[in-house]
Amino acid sequence: xxxxxxxxxxxxxxxxxxxxxxxxxxxxxxxxxxxxxxxxxxxxxxxxxxxxxxxxxxxxxxxxxxxxxxxxxxxxxxx
Length: 79
Hints:
Layout: E1 7-8, E2 15-17, E3 24-26, H1 27-30, H2 47-75
Antiparallel strand pairs: 1-2, 2-3
């Protein structure tokens, strides 16, 4: 599917605009159901939409791994 169906404001954005009703949507609005809570628009599955949904999960995982990286380096055993 073309990205013309979904307008993510930018790659680091917390929100996107519904292509049907133009309502501003947050991750929590659509993470469980690929549907606009305001107009029931069904979002097509595509890479841009998937990236939008996964972005906060990946960012949180990256923070955790970065924070724990110093600890894990100290605990490694050299064989």
